[in-house]
Amino acid sequence: MQLRVPFQRKTLRDDAVAGLVLGVQSVPDGLATGLLAGVNPLAGLYGYLVGTMAGAAATSSAFMAIQGTGAMAMIVADVPAVHDARDPAVALFTLSVLTGVVMLAAGLFRLGSVLRFVSNAVMVGFINAVGVNIILGQLSNFTGYSAPGPNRIIRALQTVVNPSQIHLATLAVGVATIVLILLLERTRLGAMGLVLAVIATSAAAFVFGWHDVATLNDLGEVPRSLPTPQLPSLLLVPSLIVPALSLAFVGLVQGASISTNYPNPDGSFADTSRDFVGQGVANIASGVFQGMPVGGSVSASALNKAAGAKSRQALFVASVVMALVILLFATAIGYVAMPALAGLLMLIGFRTIKPDRIATVWKTGIVQKAVFVVTFVLTMLIPLQYAVLVGVGVSVILHIVRQSNQVTIKRRQVNDAGDLVETDPPAVVPPGEVVVLQPYGSLFFAAAPVFEAQLPAVQDSSTGSVVILRLRGRSDLGTTFMDVLLRYAQSLDRVGSRLMIASTNADIDEQLAVTGITAVIGEGSVYRGDERVGATIRQAESDARAWVESHG
Q: Can you say whether residue 516 is alpha, beta or left, with left for phi > 0 and alpha for psi between -120 and 50 degrees?
């Protein structure tokens, strides 16, 4: 694998500015993502630092920023093995490495096509539920009241019905942070406004003497050093496989949207599988250097591009900026107020909710509505690591149901004007006729019953006829479909009619022979197709008419 560590003098100035903006903005964002995941916020910052640099060196996309994402952080927050282990930090780092291994395998085996089986309704339901979960999950840090309850919804209700438990100073810092971000974003500061808002409200809490407002120092001293290597624990791997699969899936889906929406400087689009590899490398590096799981961040990539990045050089600059902030301002970072980070996260969660996308899904039919509701409700009620996999399962089942119901059969005929037309097949095979059938749609195992139901029925009167089935472009039909053909061939044979199969290939011929169909219809009733479109079916029709005439 070729790593990409470029130095381009002509774009250095633009890349340095973009890297500075992204690097400074990533410090509070990284801390907030760690807080969202329920782990030491420094693990979020380290994940941003290492993931951005490793990803920039390994991905195909020049502008993809690999950092923590809200969806991935929420999954980590629901992983018991990370929070209940004897050493939670080691469990977190092991999860990052394992997630990277899954992503790396997906890239090396070029499994990007698997993502197309996930319907839009599933992703809209999942992402919008994540936005709600982010808001509800930060209420304790935002209000200073850790409400009891088995899930975020119950804890949110407990907070609402117990207003006397809310710490007013903590709430004031959180509200002020949100208001200040909204105001500063309207100025020329843009994305830098959220950095200044977090700094300003945290400083205000210190100046006002609100020492009972929680800060990062309450979670432990912020070291004035870069992270050192930490080996993962193989003993924890079995308990982390499911969340690693869920994290990898979410990270890859979000990364794929970046690969397809942000072309490289030369105008080419990134290789999705290569970006999978890059995200895998970034996660392994993040875990080794004490960081949480990371993935392609849509918001960070958009900020990088909007800030003027001209190459992947900007991402390296951003990583250097983050490293300098850690080394030079570790003491100040320790005084960042937890409600300030919570306010930032709640604003991010609110912006994650997309009513327009929900409305679009809602207008596309009852099936899409049902899939959206199921995914949304499950994401709200069960741990996200399982909700993700259930969503994938729902998408696959939906895909199978759709494909199996989209099979149609048409009869090919030549009309009086000499034109080839397609009509609905007859309900019953007529006596003494040639019936040419063309199937459309996927003919895999689940579609076989639908296909069989559309075939013209064979009755005692269906004598002396030939049914020709054209299979041009088909390769692997499977035994379920072959069983349908075998039954149909036998039913035609019993009433003195024949089945012919046209436009086959070597694979189909072998399947016909192995399943006994060739023995029933005869080798002369199987017509191998070639590059001449229509030649095989014309030959089959000519032979079929001759057979019908010879049999009266």
A: left
